[in-house]
Structures are given as structure tokens and as C-alpha cells.
Design goal:
The complex is a heterodimer of chains A (684) and B (335).
Chain A lengths: L7 H5 L11 H12 L9 H7 L1 H20 L13 H14 L4 H44 L6 H19 L3 H31 L1 H16 L2 H12 L3 H25 L3 H9 L4 H12 L1 H21 L8 H10 L3 H34 L4 H28 L13 H14 L3 H22 L2 H15 L2 H16 L3 H31 L1 H16 L2 H12 L3 H25 L3 H9 L4 H12 L1 H17 L1 H6 L4 H12 L2 H22 L9
Helix pairs in contact in A: 3-4, 4-20, 5-31, 6-7, 6-8, 6-11, 6-16, 6-17, 7-16, 8-9, 8-11, 8-14, 8-15, 9-11, 10-11, 10-30, 10-31, 11-14, 12-13, 14-16, 15-16, 16-18, 18-24, 19-22, 20-21, 20-31, 21-31, 22-23, 22-25, 22-28, 23-25, 24-25, 25-28, 26-27, 28-31, 30-31
Chain B lengths: L14 H25 L15 E6 L3 H18 L2 E6 L2 H10 L4 E5 L4 H10 L3 E18 H6 L25 E4 L9 H7 L4 E4 L4 H13 L5 E6 L9 E4 L21 E9 H6 L1 H9 L4 H12 L5 H11 L1 H5 L6
Parallel strand pairs in B: 1-2, 1-3, 5-6, 5-7
Antiparallel strand pairs in B: 3-9, 4-7, 4-8, 4-9
Classes of the chains: A mainly alpha (684), B alpha/beta (335).
Protein name (chain B): ABC transporter substrate-binding protein
Organism (chain B): Streptomyces solicavernae
Family (chain A): Belongs to the binding-protein-dependent transport system permease family.
Amino acid sequence: MSAAPTETPVTETPVLDKQPDTTPGGGQSDAAAAVKGVPSRGPGLRARFAGSPKALIVGMALLFAIVTAAVTGNGTWPGGLEVDVKTPLTDLTDWLSLNRTTHPVFLYFLLHISNFAETAYLSLVDLFAAMGWLGVTVVVTLVAWAAAGADLSRRALRTGAIALGALALCGVLQMWEPTMETLSLMTVAVIASAVIGLLLGLASGLSDRCERVLRPVFDVMQIMPAFAYLLPLMLIFGIGQPPALIATVIYAVPPMARLTSLGLRAADPAALEASVSLGATGRQQLLTARLPLARKQMMLGLNQTIMMCLSMVVLASLIGAGGLGDRIYRAMATKDMGMALTAGISVVLIAVLLDRSTAAAGEQLQERVSQVATRAALLLRRGVWLLALVLFVVFALFGTALGQEAWPEAWSVDLTTGIQQGVDWITRELSFMANWSDAFARGVLNPVRSGLIAVPWWALLLLVAAVGWAVGTWRAAMTGVLCLALIGALGLWDASMDTLSQVFAGLALTVLVGVLIGVLAARVPTIERVLRPVLDVMQTMPQFVYLIPVIGLIGQGRAVGVFAAVIYAAPAVIRITTESLKQVDPTVLEASRSLGDTTSQQLFKVQLPLARKGLLVGVNQGVVLVLSMVVIGGMVGGGALGYQVVYGLSKQNLAIGLPAGAAIVCLGLMLDRLSQPREKHGGR
Amino acid sequence: MHSSTHDTQSNPSNPSKHSKRIRNAILAGSAVVGMLAVSACSAASTTNAGGSDDKVTLAQPSWAGAQANIAVAKKLLEDELGVEVDVRQMNETAAFTAMDGGQADAVLEDWHGNPKQLKTFVEKKKSVVSAGELGVKGHIGWYVPKYYADKHPDITNWKNLNKYADDFKTSESKGKGQFIGADPEYSQHDTGIIKNLDLDFTHVPSGSESAQQEEIERLYKAKKPFLTYWWTPQVLQNELELVEVELPKYTKGCNVPVEKADCGYPHVDLEKFMNADFAKNGGDAAEFIKNFKWSNEDQDAVVNYMTQDKMKPEAAAEKWIKENKDVWEAWLPKK
């Protein structure tokens, strides 16, 4: 997607200014490489160290870690420093189970929320059913067209066509009913997330104090695997749509809030000054100047929020939310690959529909600010919106009379047998890949894991502090150390090192693949065009759909989880790489060309160094994305923290699930801070 | 923030004051809304499914046997009793939470996989009640493929497992033999068995049932040795020939707590459960579910229609219903 859910920090990440070569990504993969005992830096090492005291300190800490690891052999966190969280959590689980339907807190407060969520969802399902397939298709297509400008421009027509095509395809694939369920869930979740996100964004955009408080909260909300809070939510709200919706909202609020706040803060001071000098009151100023100026960012935020809602709504079917996700899980149980894949394709189609419409709406809004529309165009646009509204009402009232509730079966195609045969063929023909994955597990994952476990905990804390300080600020160092210590205290040191080794391996592969393809796409426009839908599918296809056949190919284990992580995280890195290479000043390139540089010289001597900032952002993104796949890895044999979270959820065992979730958050915060290039002080 | 001085009206001239006021307004507004939401309403209703006569919500675990139960029950409830059936996919543990909260009325196949929940909801809170046995007997055990057992016949006793541990090494098994564990949701005490019987194996958990099945099929096709948690009745039982490894005999309580477990698994009489309200006020539908009882062979038949003949669950159920009128007629409530 042009604005994929997880690319938030791109717009957010502050300008970096830093010394060469203690790059965060470098630091980490070096750490991983060094544990394996591979010399990780080329010639000129000593000279570089001498030139940069920070690099020297990181190097020393690394050396210290390796030496102590070699001497001690096993450096796990001592049991004496662990804290018992299991007992209170078990008690809490019991209390929740016993009191969920009787205690006043639930009766007079929480149950109202969940009943409201459920009623809203059910009414929407009824509404879509009442409108019939014809009504939904017509109204949604019209709205998409109107949102994109309601004219005959290429953008508006394309957006309308995409909406029409996506819905029709869902129908043709016999997925109409679950698609409507998913759309209903989406509608409730998106409205709630957008409203809450807007309010939080206003608070943090208008008040510095609120911003200071809310930013770390947003960080945690984004890094925390949804699985970790699905469990407590399920214990509080029971099973079904309410906990699913609430989990979705928690997951999807941050981008809306962040981008609203960013938009408010980035407003042109001159425009504000003008509005003040015209005598606008605080509210007038907010409504007439600041909010309209922030419109583009807010639209981008909405777009990301929608995409995140979608990915979550699918996942939430694990706790009974219904819809397309439910079809996927049900299909997996009978090994019906065809059905799983068609449901997966429908998810991708819905994603494309929502993404393209909101993106087009955003562009359109932006243009409208800069150019004055003709009166006729304005009238037309209003007319189209009115028409959509009228049609909506008409169909809601008489929809079923005009067409059936569900997509007519005669117009559908059953692809399932074909897909199944295709999958079988692939599994048969590519079975040699099992050897690769085995080699990968033995040659990369195992040594990195044993290395990490061998490093004494105190040496690792020191290394984290050194890297954090060298890359960012003392604050980053503190955060990293605290997070790591918390992991130890929770008694999850070994499992976390296991997870960490998978994250490092996944990150290295992601960056390798991402940069290679990104460079290619930046140089060959055709590749970029062809790549776009492929990347969309990679990001939005529910992982479970393709991971199970992958197990048939390479076997259950950590390699499958790493594979999933690379698929999921690579698109962001590819896009960021392509973008940053394309932004390299063309005159510089021209100069290099006129000096007679070859293509590869241009790339390595000019483009890549100049695009380094963007590449670093890509690494930072990659870390967080790879980590977010850890839980999915746990579902396909990845073990470690991800498995514990899945175990906790499926056995409703807070004592196992919650600490593991917290450990993932800690790892995420640590990796994020260590790979986040230093902020410019007082910049924002 | 900049401040402007040429503002002469009664408006405060400092924009940050503006924002403060706006912020306060927002805070106050949301507080009021929140209070209204809490105080204006009385106690919320805690159930939206239990007790209704014309609509039943069934919780459906992921495995194929459970799908067969539901498909047949749904078809009969709808065709014979005119009751609308809503099926929700959820695992065993979630199903109990759902029955407790009234989001589901009944579950047709429970393997007693979460004793703690049975205690909480059935014994203590009494919000969930038993609806009798399903009639199907479930069995869990440790299995190796037949092609391996044929070569090494003595592997079928746990005492000889260590002798062959080297054959089961993988990249995931940390230098020991690999034991393929179950979906985290299933009843299991394999970690305890491995520890307490001093087996040279590492418990490598499967993240989900489908992952485990896919893995086992792959190994089976490649004719590789494997040792796995497995159960019957099961989707793949006719496709894969597996041989059970005998574990120390199960005695009541020998698997509690898991860390101390040193025995195999019992044969489980699979049990149905329902929401307590629904059991009392569910009318014909509840009566039907209590009466629903069939054999392993019946369930297998439907499962085979679904997995081998690739029929949709509805079609498979329809076929079985047509062929077994005498079985299901007994389930209908007496008029």
C-alpha cells in the first residue's frame, strides 16, 4: 500500500544527524555476526574506530561480551533476581473467570461497552444483509468514486473501478457473506479508532505535556503483540466481537493519533499567525486553520488506521469474531487450502479497496486546498454524495426486494480444487527446500542462539547500554537496559534470547532482500510497477494462509517463522529503499555520470551513501515488523516467546501469556530505541 | 509557540492558552460522556444467546471431528426442529468462557483439556453444565509411523525410546531426539512425561493443529522417522499409518500437576457442555443437544466425507443424515 500500516515512523522519525558507521542496524547484525565469531568489519577498521570514540566503546563492549561468553559459557539471568508474577496473575485469572458476569464493575460499566460493541456490529451485519449484494456494491462504488473526487479524472474512475472490482471478486469467489461480516467489524472498529485517535491526537497535538505522556503509550500499543492483550480482554469481555473490536481499536489508534498530532504541530506558523491576527478565537483557530491544515496527515493516519484494523480483525477471529478470518481458520482445520486462499484473497481485495479509496480521498483533499474548484464541479460532487446517501437509504429499506441478500451463486467460480492442486504440485516439486531450511536453522539460528545464551547477562546489558548510547542518547541506553533487565526479572531470559536470535536472522534477511529489490525497483520503473501489487499481497495476506503449505515444504520450525517475518517486513524496507534512492538529487547523479562512473559505481559511491538516512529508517522499521511476526512464528513451530503467548491465549493462562507478551514489548522497545537514529534535540 | 500582541478583542492572545482551553473542553466533554455512559444505564444484560428458543449458538473447535458433530447437529436442528443455528469457531477453552458469558449455548465435544476451567465454571460458578456424553471415545497417545516401527519393532515400548533417540534428531531438537508436541490448546502433559521418564527427547511444540498435521504429512511422505503427539478420531487417521508407543498406564491424577506427570493418556469419553440457562430454558433445542449421541464410526464417516471425498461439511452431514435415520431419530425430543 502506498501508505502501509506500519510505515508510521517514516513520517515521524526525526531527521537524523550522526556520525558514520555506528549504524544501529550495523551494530546489531554485527553483534549477531560477532557471536558467531565471524569478523564483521572490513579493512580500515582500526582507522574508523580511532576516528570515533563511540564506535570504540561499542567495539570494546562487544569484545567484552565475546570474551566473557567464551569464559563463562552460560550467562543466563540468575534465578535469584527473578520476580514471581505467576501467582498474582493466576489469582487474577480465577477472579475474572468467577466474577465476569456478576461483579458490579462489569455489570455497570464494562458490559455496557461490550454490549454496545456487539449491538453495533450486529446492526451493521443486518444492514448489509438488508441492502443486498446489489445495494452494497453500488453504494460502496459510488462512495469510493465520490471520495476520489467524483469526476472523470483518472484517479476517481480508477478508485471507483477498484471498489467495484474488489467487491465483485469477493462475490465471485463465494466469499460474500464473510466479507460483509468483516466489513461490519471493520466499520465499527474504524469509526471507534478514528474518533479515539482524533481525540488523543488533538490532546497530544495541542499540549506538550499530553504529548510527553502519550508518546511512549503509543509506542507500547504499537509494539505489543495483539495476542498478548487479546487474552486479558477475552477474560474481561468474554468471547466474540467485543474483545475483538476492543483489541482492534487498541492496535489501530496510534497512527491516527500520531499523525493528527503531527499535522497539528506541523501547521505553518504564518497561516496560524494570519488566523490569529484576523481575530479568531481558540476554537475558531483550531477549526478553521489548524485542523484543515492538518488534513493531509489526518487522512494518512486514517488510511493507516484502516489497514491496521483490517489486519487485526482477521487475527481476532481466533476469539470468535467471525468473518473472513474465521473462514481461514475453519479451512485450515479441514486442510482446505482452496477455501483458505480464497478467503485470504478476499482480505487482500478489501485491503486494496480501502487503501486506494482513502489514499485517493487524501490526495483529492490535498488538491482541493491548493486549487479552487469550479462551481459546477462542486455541485456535481455534492450531488454524487447526495445520490450515494439516497441510494443507501433506498437500498437499506428495499434492498432485498431489488436483489438477493447474498451474491448470486450462478455468478461465482469455485477455484478451490485448482488451488489445492497447485499447492500440492508446489510442495512436491520444491521439496528440496527442506534442506535449505534445515541448513539455515543449523547454520544460522542455532549458533546465534547459543551465542546469545552464552553471553553473560551483565555483559549483554553493558553491550546494550553501549550501543544505545552510541546510537542515540543516554535515554535510549537506559530504556534498552531497563527493558532487558525486566525480561530477566520476568524469568524469560532464555526464551527471549531464542526469540532475539530469530529476530536477528530475520532482520538480516529482510534488509538483504529489501535493499536488493529496492535498488532494483528504483532503477527499473517497470519492476516497481509490477512489484506494487505483489508487495500489497505480501503485507495484507493473512500469514496463516501461506504458512501452513510452507510447513509442508520446509517443515515446522523456527525457519518458517523467520520466513513469515521476511515476507511481512520486506515490503516496507523495499518501499523505503526505493523512495530514498529516488530522492537522491538528480544533479549529483548527473555529475557522477559525467565523470564517467559505471552504473555500479554510481550506485555504491553516490546513491547508496546519499540514501543512507532512508535506509536506516528502513532498518528501524524492519526490526519492529520482524518482531511483530514473532507470535505468528509461535503458531508454526517458532517456539520461544511467541509460543508462550499463543499457549497463554489458548489455555486462557495469564500467568504464561502476559509475561511473555510483556517480554516481547520489552524486546521491541529495546530494539526500536537501539535502531532509532538519534533525534535532533528540541526539533519538534 | 509564538505569541501575538496585536489581538485586541476579548480573546486571550496567547495561542497556547487557546489550546489549553480546547484541551480542557475536550477533557471535560469526554468525562461527561463517560459518566453518562456509566450512570445513565442500569446493570447491563449479561447474556445475549442463552435461553432463546429459536436460535442456538454452537461453539465449534477447529478439529474435523468437532466439525462433523456440528454439521450434523446444525442440519437436524434447522430441518427437523426449525431452530436457527449460529456456529462460531472457537477453541475448547474459549468455548467455556463463551458458555459462561452466554455468547455460546453449547459445545458438543470436549476433551477435558482444561481441568481448571471445568472446576471454575462447572463446579464453582455453575454457569456451565454437562449435557451428557457424546458417545465418541477419544484417545491421545505417542505415535511413530508404521514404516519405522516395522524396522524397529521394540520402539513401541517407551523404555526403548532412548535407544533410538538419535534417529529423531532435528535442527530444532537441541541435540536430543525431537518429540513433536501438540497444539498448545490440547490436553497434554508431554513435557512432564519426558522429564520424569528420563527420555532423551526435546519437546518441540507445534504452534497449531494444522501446523502439526502438515508437518507430519511432510515427514510421512519423505518416509522420515518421527515421534509425535497424536489422537483419534482424527482427520488423517486413514491416510497415515501410525503405531502407538506404549507409555506407563494412566491412573487417575497421575498427570497432575504436569511437571510431575509420569504416565500416558486416558481414553476420554468426550462430553457435551451447555450454558446453564440454556439447559433449563432451551426447550427442544436443548433437549436435542442432550440427546445427541453417536459412535466413533458415525463421526468418522462424516469426517471421511469431508476430508477424503472433499465434501463441504453441510453436504457431508446431509449424506450421513440420509443414511442413518434410525440413529438420529432417537435424538429428537418426544412430542
